[in-house]
Amino acid sequence: MLKKGAYLFLILFATMFVVACSRMPKKGSSSQNFVMPSDKLKVLSTTTIIDDLVAKIGKEHIVHTSLITGQLDPHSYELVKGDDDKISNADVLLYNGLGLEHGASLKYHLENAENAYAISDSIQDDTAFIFVDGQVDPHIWMDLSLLAKAAIPVGKILAKHDPLHEKEYMQNAKDLEGKMLALDRQMEVTLGRIPKESCYLVTSHDAFYYFTRRYLAKDNERASGEWKKRCRAPEGLAPDGQMSPKDIGAIVEYALSYGVEVVFTESNVNQDALKKVVKIIKQKGSLADLSEKPLYGDTMGEEGSGAEDYLKMMEYNSKLISEHLCKTHERSLL
């Protein structure tokens, strides 16, 4: 028979083993799994949003992971220990492009790797891109109809490197494209219900221009370019926390001019600037508050957030924005 001490040790060991296993990353998305030998196609994406699309297209035929995980900022990301191993083990390297991944060490690899592909190259119409202060806006994923254009090309890239599963890749890509366009139509309806006098969005940084143009603007505004008046943020395309009193003052004036009562935080951006905006608006005698929950702009949500994958993230954002802006309109009628 086991002695009491040995028995307790076995129970403790078994408990620790179960807990450790429960915390292991999902199969196929583990960085540790990615660098292990495998007969499957290895696909490395820069962001979790791209990785999510890859996972839905490649499914069981690939091993996949992303470089930039959690709530890390993709704009300023620099390679860390272990990233070189991931890059050297990748058969395919997918990135957003349009200057999103502009950290020097990462940018070097993306520009010099023969197996690297920018998903933004899938968008052939140059007029689809938005420019902010002379810079191209890289946040194309905030418009489902735009990112849907990348589904089939990603399927073709996987098929190029793994012809044996071409049929599955292309069918999965087609299915994903259909789901993305269906959600795009659903969001147009959901957000189209917001009265136009309340369709004004203030967020942490300039990640929601594509979202605004697609889902909050009216047709005549898209044609004239006036849709840009419906979105503002104190920080630019890449949040860096370097805001002047002038930047904050401009957002305050914008909010007061258009009756903005809710300022949307973002999951991976510091809230200090937005808190200052809200404080000043209140000092001027108007209603204002931070959103109860954050929007997801550059990253997806953690498990349990309701924004765990790309499609859920977009639906989550649309519902949160719609609920808050509709409430603002209702209060304006009182």
Automatic annotation (TrEMBL):
UniProt KW keywords: Metal-binding, Signal, Transport
One annotated GO molecular function: metal ion binding
Signal peptide: 1-20
Protein name per Swiss-Prot or TrEMBL: ABC transporter substrate-binding protein
Family membership noted in the UniProt record: Belongs to the bacterial solute-binding protein 9 family.
InterPro entries for the chain: AdhesinB (IPR006129), Bact_metal-bind_prot9 (IPR050492), Lipoprotein_PsaA-like (IPR006128), ZnuA-like (IPR006127)
Gene Ontology biological process terms in this record: cell adhesion; metal ion transport
Source taxon at top rank: Bacteria
Record's subcellular location: Cell envelope
A Gene Ontology cellular-component term: cell envelope
